[in-house]
Amino acid sequence: MDIASSEHHQASGTIDHYRISVPGRTELAGNHQDHQGGCVIAAGINRRISCDARPHSGNCIHVRSEGHEECLINLADPNCWTSRASERHTTISLVRGMAAQLMQQGVELHGCILDIRSDIPAGAGLSSSAAFELCVGAALAVLGGWKISLHGSTAAGNVDYDSRCLTPLHLAQMALHAERAFFGKPCGIMDQIACAYGGVIQMDFANRVNPAVSHVVLPPSCDAYTYLLVNCGSGHEDSTDAFAQVAQDMQAAADVFGVAELREVGMARYVDNIGRVRAQCGDLVALRGLAFFEEFALVHRRLDALHDDNARQFVYLTNRSSVVSAQHLQNVGFPGRHEDAMVALALCHRVLAELTGARDGTLCGSARIHGGGFGGTIQVIVPNEFVQMFTARIDSLLGAGSCMLVRLGAPGIRVEEPGK
How far apart are CA 235 and CA 155, in angstroms? Predict the structure, then answer.
């Protein structure tokens, strides 16, 4: 259905009860682009978080999930909408943040129960937190009598107060604020948009808060490949500071040129003046600034490959992106602490080389660090005929069940009335 709200049930006198679901996302191209005005290709995946949402007597929002402590927000508390330092990096901060954003938009919140289930692996770089934020936000909005426009324009525009309607981008913007101001992670909005819209999309962050979003069609040549994620053995739980440092370093590089973001500089000007960046900020900052431009160009070259129905070229360029992450961004592991992701990446490349048997160095598939890096999963694209051999070999090296097959293009936010 294109529009969903609780008005149908209110009119009919039946009990409001909704099932909301949101996919995880995978970043196909565009590592650490959103916070510097770059471009990203991302896709919804066939792993989702879902919520059974229903009203409940009393003044509390109950968010329950098997194996986790219940999140409880007392709506009668006049300070229930303010961020709390004691809740930083906790699930309840995300619930509170989404509730606060909805209230500011005029959504009337009431006591309710949200029962959450998810098959999105936490810490795998699949944006489980963004999916959770959006799922909670959509549930609270629908129970509050608002509509979620599930299709149509990819621009946010102003909130339509007359018809009480929110777009996926509105919810993504609220989720971004919840994660930054309440949870305490200085992320960009890419994860939230990719989960909200699903499908396969390109995002252009020339406007970082309200980016241009367009749909991408995967051509027939992509059907010859299978998309896998390989578990590194370490998640993202301890990488928030490292993730934030990448954004800070890129911003420091932009500051050298007196601009708001690196996109305003351009590759040629940056390279010609990289000595200034090294002198003022150090080598790592200079390299991370260069990574932005390298990856920015690779996103557009990969889009061209898709438009030309050339999946093989897409795969080749994805391996180049892997080199940029390892050499320039240096976001694959933690030298001196643990190198789980780097080991997994190296083994994926090694196995691809074994399967290819090519002497010119060209691999049959690709492998790169996924998402923000520093752990989680390695993204691997493998020709269909090699999938079983690849997974068996990787499982023998990294442990049984290390490979997860992922299907791309899953739909974004979904609101269902049970029984329909």
Answer: 33
Give me the helix-helix angle, 128-143 and 91-104, nearest 10°.
40
pLDDT at 335: 64
CA dist., res. 287 & res. 305, Å (int): 26
* Distance of alpha carbon 192 from alpha carbon 172, whole angstroms: 5
Tokens 């709390």 belong to residue: 84
Kindly report the CA angle at 22 between 87 and 377, in degrees rounded to 5?
75
Which pLDDT value is given to residue 420? 56
Q: Tell me the one-letter amino acid at 370.
A: H
Question: Is the distance from CB of 167 to CB of 83 less than 8 angstroms?
Answer: no
Structural tokens at position 62: 């109950």
Upper half-sphere CA count for residue 193 (Cβ side, 13 Å): 29
49 exposure class (CB count in 10 Å sphere: 0-12, 13-18, 19+): buried
Question: Does residue 94 contact residue 183 with C-beta atoms inside 8 Å?
Answer: yes
Residues in the chain: 420
Burial call 329-358: b when 16+ CB within 10 Å, e when fewer = bbbbbbeeebbbbbbbbebbbebbeebbee
Name residues of the chain where pLDDT drops below 70. Answer: 1-15, 151-158, 235-239, 335-336, 358-361, 418-420
**pLDDT score for 71:** 95
Q: What's the DSSP call for residue 364?
A: S
Dihedral sign computed on CA atoms, order 37, 21, 127, 232 = negative
What φ, ψ does residue 62 adopt, rounded to 5°?
A: -110, 120
CB contact at 8 A, 111 and 58: yes
Residue pair 217/200 in contact (Cβ under 8 Å)? The answer is: yes
**Given this model, what pLDDT does residue 236 score?**
58
Q: Which residues contact residue 103 at a Cβ distance below 8 angstroms, ignoring those fewer than 6 apart?
A: 81, 109
Distance of CA 236 to the CA centre of its chain: 13
β-pair partners for 22 = 49
* Backbone region of residue 225 per phi and psi (left: phi > 0; alpha: psi in -120 to 50; beta: other values): beta
pLDDT value at position 4? 41
Distance CA 122, CA 240 (A): 14
Please indicate, yes or no, whether the overall pTM of this predicted structure exceeds 0.85: yes
Separation CA 280–CA 285 (nearest Å): 9
Task: Please tell me the predicted confidence (pLDDT) of residue 6.
Answer: 41
112-118 and 60-65 strand pairing: parallel
Name 74's bridge partners.
60
Using alpha carbons, select from 132, 143, 229 the residue that is nearest to residue 183: 132
* Rounded CA Rg of the chain: 22
Helix (H, G, I), strand (E, B) or coil at 254: helix
